[in-house]
Amino acid sequence: MRRAGLIAGTACVGVVVVMALVALFWTPYDPGQVEASQALAQPSAAHLFGTDGFGRDIFSQLLVGARICLQVGIVSVAIGALVGVPLGIWAGMAPGRIGRAIMRVSDVLYAFPALLLAILLAAARGSASTGTAMVAIGVSTVPAFARVAHGATRSVMARDYVAAARASGIGWGGIARTHVLVNIAPVVLVQTSTSFGLAILAEAGLSYLGIGTAPTTPSWGRMLYDAQKYLYQAPLQLLWPGMFIAVAVLGFNLLGDGLRDALDPRLRTGRHDD
Amino acid sequence: MSESTPEFALREVRRTFHRRRGRGAGTVAAVDGVDLDVMAGQRLGIVGESGSGKSTLLRMMAAIVAPTSGRISFRGHRIDSARPRDLGALRSSVQMVFQDPNSSLDPRMKVADIVTEPLRSPLVRGRGDAPADRRARLVEVLAEAELEPDIARRYPHELSGGQRQRVAIARALAPEPDVLLADEPVSALDVSVRAHVLNLFVDLVRARGLTFVLVGHDLAVVRHVCDSVAVMQAGRVVESGPVEQVYRNPRHDYTKTLLASVPSIRAHRG
Amino acid sequence: MTELLSVENMVVGFEGASRPTIGGISFTLRAGQRLGLIGESGSGKSVTALALMGLLPDTAHLSGSVRLAGRELVGLGDAKMARIRGREMSMVFQEPMTALDPTMRVGRQVAEVVRLHCARTGSGHTRERVCRMLEEVGLPDAERIADSYPFQLSGGQRQRVMVAMALINRPELIICDEPTTALDVTVQARVLDVLDRGLREVGAACLFISHDLAVVSQICDDVIVMYRGQIVEAGPVAVLLDHARHPYTRGLVATARLDEVAPGARLRVIEDFWDASQERR
Q1: Residue C21 zone, left/alpha/beta (φ > 0; ψ -120 to 50; rest)
Q2: Which chains touch C (3 or more CB pairs under 8 A)?
Q3: Measured between CB atoms, which of B59, B105, B158 is closest to A161?
Q4: How many domains does chain A have?
Q5: Which GO BP terms apply (chain B) (predicted)?
Q6: Is A274 inside any structural domain?
Q7: Whole-angstrom Cα distance, residue B123 to residue B89?
């Protein structure tokens, strides 16, 4: 059962990755090429998934959209993890007040939705872009990473192997490197995967609202927004980007769970202890 | 070092903990004014039930837990308020074995890395005569702990309970300490495995002339390994002396209760 | 002599394991008898307890015959098994902290066992019965204990609550799986005493599982020795102590007698008596 989830997750993520890679070198049409005569074409050999209201090839847009989706996921999760995990570890290892203070600050940040941050950033920069969306999503995932890392670090710090390391004079840095990082890696990994899925979802949402990816760039969320105008004429147009968003989010969640099990040395050998 | 300087000297040591939930919320004194000397070569047992403060006391001697008040010296130097980098003498000559190897061995490290961890400590390396060749030392201490050399490549969960505790002992021996602190090292083990591990402790302590402090709840175990004993109840030492004297002629009521509680084989229920 | 529990050729295997954890064991337990089951970790003694209680995980496969008061338990549905558990037989686990629900006051948890099996009693009556039971297991401040959550109690108090839960429906059989292993010697002595008196009062039979022969001998008259999923020897404690037939049993007896060895002298170990490699084929 565990394997099934891992395989399904890898397959879903693999589809998105392959699409993004292909889009780097080749798309059937220029995704931005407007061809009014071809508007709202049904799926055919020429246009695999049909065309949108401006006559742009949907398949080409989906391929490029996959690249943007991964780009947003990677950058925003990297921001969240690189800031949040060290903060969480620091808070978990620092005794008493310092640790609590860090977590309270993180809680305050938690109260700001990505949407609000995106609006603020876009206002500050003067325009909305994939960049502002990525930063906004990234910053808003920092508290989630900090929280997960904090909890896991606390439970590692309560273990006697940390006491043993301290008793032999291993410093805090050494303990963080050899014991804490390794032991919290699985939960951070799961959080990374889940956040990746959420980031993709958030970007789609922001783009849909017009404060994410700019109109000329075909993000999946943007495509959803464009497609809703033709809900009754061409419902399939809505289905494609929606389906790929779902596949990507589901894939990253399944992958996270599968990896957690696969990385646990206690589960790996499948021994039964009496 | 002169005869009269004890390895450890504890004076009026107190440690309180804050309890935020449950009954008795507020400040609880785990260790409540303990005076104790441990001489070089002494084998001291600290006995008491859980909550008596014996483990906290041992952890303060290892400078993992700081005392709330009082003084703790190791070879004449204060360790209770020292900065981590000033604990060199303590860290390089004192090692500790814990009760539960499930908790004291990092599940994601291989035995080889676990055992050689103390050798990577800057404070141990700072000592002139610390073993330099980690791989050679690993093979040596595994043999001393009566473990097969090929165990080095395994993870803790692949070992039996007795093997895990031997790995913990091998780790403690790796930097060639003079003092061994052991916190209930056989309480989590099967009785049949206990005999092995106790034999190992007796042999090691005797062969190397280690100073040994054993914390336990079973006076029979303490009597087997130690030459003196301190009985703790509710954070205080209520009785202490040579182990045979306390074992044969306990004066404090609590010591009598402890002795009576050690289960012995009864052929007939009565 | 009526047979209360009769186990015949019980085999338990786990998915993916090459050999069964329990390799066909048979034993019987008379009404009111106290039988110790002794073995090292990995011998299969805890799996035996779970198998008898019908609490094996889904990955386990059980075959053979287990009869309680003449009724076959192997193959019995989960719902029917649940009705037997707690009423006709009950269990005391090693770790009361995990066996008790941390979010529920212990009085309610004990009362639940009563209510599950006797629907007719009113809640006031149940409460009274719970408190009386808690007093019987040596918790004099029963009202206060009943209103406490598990984390507010000490390990010994929690284990007494477990004993109270096991005894309250006056079952015919109580299975104790290492009930005092997690406890200090002083607390262990008190819990054993409470268990001993409770068993006598209720008149229940007991299967007492432990790795410590000394502890088993405090409660039981007879003992069976398990090694690698097999019973290697069975008999009265007194006979096993001095005239064990199997060398493994002699080794177990020797390791349990710390008091017979001079302080600091080498303790005898099982390998002095029994070479484990003989068995490994």
Answers
A1: alpha
A2: A, B
A3: B105
A4: 1
A5: peptide transport; transmembrane transport
A6: no
A7: 8
Question: Which alpha helices (DSSP H) does chain C contain, by range?
Answer: 45-53, 78-84, 96-99, 106-117, 123-136, 142-146, 155-167, 185-202, 213-219, 237-243, 247-256, 276-279
Put simply, whether C47 touches A (Cβ < 8 Å) is yes
- Asked if the structure places residue A253 within a domain, the reply is yes
Closest Cα of chain B to C133: distance in Å? 23
Residues 6+ apart with CB under 8 A from C26: C7, C8, C9, C10, C231
C210 in contact with A, Cβ within 8 Å: no
| CB < 8 Å to B155, chain A | 265
How many Cβ atoms from other residues are within 10 Å of residue A270's Cβ?
11
Domains and CATH numbers, chain B: 8-269 (3.40.50.300)
What is the per-residue pLDDT across A184-230, written as a single tens digit (0 to 9) for each? 988 898 899 889 988 988 888 888 888 877 777 788 888 888 888 88
| Record: contact B23-C148, CB cut-off 8 A | yes
Adjacent-strand bridge partners of C35:
C207, C222
Joined tokens for residue B269: 């229920």
Residues of A in Cβ contact (< 8 Å) with C21: 272, 274
Give the residue numbers in A contacting B (CB under 8 Å), as ranges: 159-161, 163-171, 174, 178-179, 182-183, 265-266, 269, 271
Alpha carbon of residue B43 to chain centroid: 11
ipTM of the complex model: 0.86
Distance between C199 CA and the closest CA of chain A, angstroms = 27
Domain harbouring A120, CATH code: 1.10.3720.10
pTM, two decimals, is 0.85
CATH class of C1-88+175-236: alpha beta
Ranges for all domains in chain C classified under CATH 3.40.50.300: 1-88+175-236
pLDDT in tens, chain C (281 residues): 578 999 999 999 998 888 899 999 999 999 999 999 999 888 999 999 999 999 898 889 999 999 999 999 998 888 888 888 888 899 998 887 788 888 889 999 998 888 877 666 667 788 888 999 999 888 888 899 999 999 888 888 999 999 999 989 889 999 999 998 888 888 889 899 999 999 999 899 999 999 999 899 999 989 999 999 999 999 999 898 888 999 999 999 888 888 788 888 889 888 888 887 665 43
User: Contact C259/B220, CB-based, under 8 Å?
Assistant: yes
